[in-house]
């Protein structure tokens, strides 16, 4: 019989509450509260799809300015997420825009091209592609510099931002850039009207894999992070003749030998010890036979620096020393050709500080580490010279156990551009997409404590 008094009703209600709390079956029947997934949880759920995308990019590499199918694949995947995609910028470059109300415009750049390297990783999805180079030789093609990770990361970022438009406002620009390996793609896109035809970004971000850092970590450097890259060709002139009668000749190979040694004193004796600089003679071509003194000798140099003043000092010194050697041998003045390549990459100090704070909050202080500047080149720098604050961070790409094994064996891990280099893709992408999304959300104004 149901209770009819107030006391009876209250007693029945308390009894029912006690039964729910004490009975696991009844307690479990209560519907769970839906909690939005964190960025990290979302990336974990998207991992299988991203790894599949990564393997396609890895298996189908294309050389600089030949990235037709790579760009088409990336454009198709971005368009499927709702991005307005414009292909054919500066070659096979593409711009993908996602407009989401008022707010800043932020660019996230990925490079598209691979290298003429024959892959030797023995991965089941290793590149088998072969091409004929301009000199008639045949080479394999490989993403030996990690651009396949870069593209997959940009795709993961693009998907998250498209699926979570309630978390940010502004315009996201995903930039697919050709020919980074030639140091020419950014220039080609800018000359094709990149920032006239599309919104000029308020900020630009990018990342680059690092084969010496463990997955789960990222590295940063404010200010100069990568170098000016210049190429110098020197043709020393001689007077040919018989190797048995050198007194009747002007020997260009002896000139070259002296010049190689003289060039080494530029950095050691003319540049301040605190200023990084490199002058490397990468190739010498001269002569045809044991007993013939030739007419010329060709030297090919790479020259690295950071500041513009040091760059000019190095190039002026190379010209001076080459001319001095020729004069000392009574030789004709040498031909000196300087090809100014990729400018040094300067990470905007304020932007770097802001993003690093976000990365530390997202990944933990121990997983965000300062790194040394590199004498390598990166044409992401050109967007900074175009007036956009830029920041490129490094991404740990190799499992810590693999790195420990290399150390145990007394070996260095395979470097970028090595036929043996490969990243631990799934783990690297988990970190890269999580970090990149967190950085973008903060720059768009959504401060997240638990990405």
From TrEMBL:
- Cofactors (names): Mn(2+)
Sorted alphabetically, which Pfam families does this protein's record hold?
M20_dimer, Peptidase_M20
Which key words are in the record? Hydrolase, Manganese, Metal-binding
Q: Name one GO biological process term.
A: diaminopimelate biosynthetic process
Q: Which residues form a coiled coil?
A: none
Query: Which InterPro entries does the entry mention?
Result: Amidohydrolase, Bact_exopeptidase_dim_dom, Peptidase_M20, Peptidase_M20_dimer
Residues that coordinate or bind Mn(2+): 145, 147, 181, 208, 417
- GO MF annotations for this entry? metal ion binding; N-acetyldiaminopimelate deacetylase activity
Q: How is the cofactor bound?
A: The Mn(2+) ion enhances activity.
Looking at the record, the residues that make up the Peptidase M20 dimerisation domain are 229-329
Q: Does the keyword Manganese apply?
A: yes
Among NCBIfam families, the record links this protein to: amidohydrolases (TIGR01891)
Name of the protein this chain belongs to: Amidohydrolase
Origin organism is: Blastopirellula marina
Q: What is the lineage of its organism?
A: Bacteria, Pseudomonadati, Planctomycetota, Planctomycetia, Pirellulales
């Amino acid at each position: 019989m149901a209770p009819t008094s107030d006391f009876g009703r209250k007693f029945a209600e308390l009894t029912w509450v006690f039964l729910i709390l004490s009975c696991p079956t009844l307690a479990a029947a209560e519907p769970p509260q839906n909690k939005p997934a964190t960025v990290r949880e979302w990336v974990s759920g998207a991992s299988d799809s991203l790894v599949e995308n990564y393997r396609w990019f890895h298996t189908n590499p294309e050389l600089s300015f030949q990235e037709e199918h790579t760009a088409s694949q990336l454009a198709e995947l971005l368009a499927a997420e709702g991005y307005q995609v414009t292909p054919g910028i500066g070659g096979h470059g593409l711009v993908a825009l996602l407009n989401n109300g008022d707010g800043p415009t932020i660019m996230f750049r990925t490079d598209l091209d691979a290298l003429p390297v024959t892959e030797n990783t023995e991965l089941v999805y290793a590149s088998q592609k072969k091409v004929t180079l301009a000199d008639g030789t045949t080479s394999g093609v490989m993403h030996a510099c990690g651009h396949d990770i870069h593209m997959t990361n940009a795709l993961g970022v693009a998907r998250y931002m498209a699926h979570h438009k309630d978390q940010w406002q502004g315009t996201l620009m995903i930039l697919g850039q050709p020919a980074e390996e030639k140091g020419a793609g950014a220039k080609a896109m800018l000359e094709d009207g990149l920032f006239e035809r599309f919104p000029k970004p308020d900020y630009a971000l990018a990342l680059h894999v690092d084969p010496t850092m463990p997955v789960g970590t990222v590295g940063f450097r404010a200010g100069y992070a990568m170098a000016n890259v210049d190429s110098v060709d020197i043709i020393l002139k001689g007077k040919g003749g018989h190797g048995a009668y050198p007194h009747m000749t002007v020997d260009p190979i002896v000139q070259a030998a002296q010049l190689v040694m003289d060039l080494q004193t530029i950095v050691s004796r003319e540049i301040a010890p605190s200023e990084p600089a490199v002058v490397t003679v990468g190739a010498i071509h001269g002569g045809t036979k044991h007993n013939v003194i030739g007419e010329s000798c060709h030297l090919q140099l790479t020259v690295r620096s950071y500041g513009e003043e040091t760059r000019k000092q190095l190039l002026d010194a190379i010209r001076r020393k080459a001319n001095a050697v020729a004069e000392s041998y009574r030789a004709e003045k040498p031909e000196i050709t300087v090809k100014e390549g990729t400018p040094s990459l300067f990470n905007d100090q304020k932007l770097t500080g802001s993003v690093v704070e976000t990365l530390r909050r997202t990944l933990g202080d121990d997983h965000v580490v300062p790194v040394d500047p590199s004498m390598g080149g990166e044409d992401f720098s050109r967007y900074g010279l175009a007036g956009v604050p830029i920041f490129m961070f490094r991404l740990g790409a190799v499992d810590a156990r693999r790195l420990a094994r290399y150390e145990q064996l007394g070996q260095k891990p395979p470097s970028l551009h090595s036929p043996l280099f490969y990243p631990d893709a799934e783990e690297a992408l988990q970190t890269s997409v999580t970090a990149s999304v967190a950085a973008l959300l903060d720059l768009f104004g959504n401060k997240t404590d638990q990405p």
